[in-house]
Amino acid sequence: MALPNTHLGAEGIASLLEGKKNLFFAGIGGVSMNALAHISHLRGYRVSGYDRTPSSITHKLEEMGVTVYYTESEEHVKDCDALIYTVAMPADNKEYAYAKEHGIPLISRADYLGYIMTGYKRRIGVSGTHGKSTTTAMIARVLSHAEVDPTVFNGAAMKETGTVDMIGGEEYFAFEACEYMDSFLDFNPTVAVVLNIELDHVDYFKSIGQIRDSFAAFMNLAGEDGCAVININDKDCILAADGVKCKCITFAHENPAADYYSDNETLVDGYPEFDVFRHGEFLARVKLQVPGEHSVSDALAAFAACAESGIAPVIIAEGLSSYEGICRRMDKMCVTKNGAVLYSDYAHHPTEITTTLSGVDKICRGKLNVVFQPHTFSRTAELFDDFVKAFSESGADEIVLCDIYPARETNIYGVSSQGLAEAIAKTGVKCIAADSFEAAADYINSVSSTGDVILVMGAGDVIKVADTIVEKYGE
Predict the structure, then answer these.
(1) Could you tell me whether strands 163-166 and 172-176 are parallel, antiparallel, or unpaired per DSSP bridges?
(2) Residues in contact with 14: Cβ distance below 8 Å, sequence separation at least 6, in sequence order
(3) Is the pLDDT of residue 170 over 60?
(4) Distance CA 236, CA 185 (A)
(5) Residue pLDDT, tens place only, 353-405
(6) What would the pLDDT profile of 11-65 be if each residue is shown by its tens digit?
């Protein structure tokens, strides 16, 4: 089970850290933690931290003067004034356990991020079950194109920078707001974007009603002077927004009932082009460099959020049209010796799978062959029938399932990739379970040829399959 968030709040953390300088980050090499450590270092704190594995991220921190340890020890935290941790940190981590036992203040990552962002004037938080990283990256690209020197915290590396974060000025702050464990309720957005709402993270959320309540609370964080930007093509977004106290700005794909909507859409080799309207007035035409109709909705959300934050429509359209995408989102990795094109993608929820495969179908000239790794036992068990339906209706010609990625869980649910593969195969779709990543790579390569697409998909470590294909079979 994940560690709890602290919910001290920005004012509480400010009071706690007043006059203190030594901060320790447990899990400093993480996607968000390293950026928090970086900003803290720039603000004059003496920063140190632990991560179990050296990486390019930790090496960059060390080059800045940040001390990074790769083994756990109580000695690392005896002189620290506060310990910032990720909720994924095991409770028996030596630094965390020592700090807790000896009264050293503990601050969860989300809580500390909420504190840090209060130093920025315009704060755009992107939430939703799907599309958060993509939309945050789109907003980052627009703000960079607008030359407003944004600071950005994303959940995936942006292709324009090769990083998950951008450290800029103190006017604009864009960030991915994850709902897991209600982490996003520690944030302080002035613009709260909600892309969509579905049942997910079932180890924490027990009903769609509970999830809607959490998203409603996130919207209200924008306050009376801010706004929520919501997708009115999503029924649960509408239900969640009912009764919120902040101003609601709406967006929707091809729905003129929204404040911001798209029209005159065309697909050019699977890449969308569309006009953006606000209250019936034409604003700009956008030509995306990323495939799939689902990208239009994300782009509209980014357009609305940036427009409501003071960016001119023509600048927004130019920024969106130059957006290159993020890593692990239909990321083209190579062409194999057999002539197939290899992509990797992060989709791990049934809706994401359906949306991604629908987009791939527009650019695939031959067979569509998929390698998928289910993510967490709880999600696989709770949404088992939805996974079967998503793959049975996907149009995929061959599907290979890898072992379930456990993340923070143990298998108390009795689910397996073998069982999921058998259920999918019963629908008439060719689907098998592989014994290893290498076996999955070898098989999917053997059934692929010129014009085919190989899609390696999932949120765990299934990227190793794609890496194996590149190494063994890539040209």
Answers:
(1) unpaired
(2) 115
(3) yes
(4) 18
(5) 988 888 787 777 899 999 999 999 999 999 999 999 999 988 899 999 999 99
(6) 999 999 999 999 999 999 987 898 899 999 999 999 999 998 898 889 999 999 9
Give the Cα separation of 411 and 367 in Å (integer): 34
Cα gap 303→344, rounded to integer Å: 26
Structure tokens at 351: 């809706």
Whether the Cβ atoms of residue 216 and residue 240 lie closer than 8 Å to each other:
yes
Q: Side-chain half-sphere of 81: how many Cα atoms within 13 Å?
A: 14
CA 451 to chain CA centroid, nearest Å = 30
Instruction: Give Dmax over CA atoms of the chain in angstroms.
Output: 66
**Do 23 and 84 touch, CB atoms closer than 8 A?**
yes
Handedness of CA 53, 440, 358, 324 (dihedral sign): positive
From residue 122, how far is each of 164, 227, 402 by CA, in Å? 19, 11, 42
pTM of the model: 0.79
Residue with tokens 């023509």: 314
SS3 for the chain is CCCCCCCCHHHHHHHHHCCCCEEEEECCCCCCHHHHHHHHHHCCCEEEEECCCCCHHHHHHHHHCCEEECCCCHHHHCCCCEEEECCCCCCCCHHHHHHHHCCCCEEEHHHHHHHHHCCCCEEEEEECCCCHHHHHHHHHHHHHHCCCCCEEEEEEEECCCCEEEECCCCCEEEEECCCHHHHHHHCCCCEEEECCCCCCCCCCCCCHHHHHHHHHHHHHCCCCCCEEEEECCCHHHHHHHCCCCCEEEEEECCCCCCCEEEEEEEEECCEEEEEEEECCEEEEEEECCCCCCHHHHHHHHHHHHHHCCCCCHHHHHHHHHCCCCECCCCEEEEEECCCCEEEEECCCCHHHHHHHHHHHHCCCCCCEEEEEECECHHHHHHCHHHHHHHHHCCCCCEEEECCCECCCCCCCCCCCHHHHHHHHHCCCCCEEECCCHHHHHHHHHHCCCCCCEEEEEECCCCHHHHHHHHHHHEC
CB atoms within 10 A of CB 465: 29
Answer yes or no: are the C-beta atoms of 218 and 127 closer than 8 Å: yes
Give the whole-angstrom CA distance, residue 126 versus residue 134.
10
User: Would you say how long the chain is, in residues?
Assistant: 475
Q: What is the mean pLDDT of residues 215-235?
A: 96
Encode pLDDT of 281-311 as tens digits: 999 999 998 877 778 999 999 999 999 999 9
Amino acid at 293: E
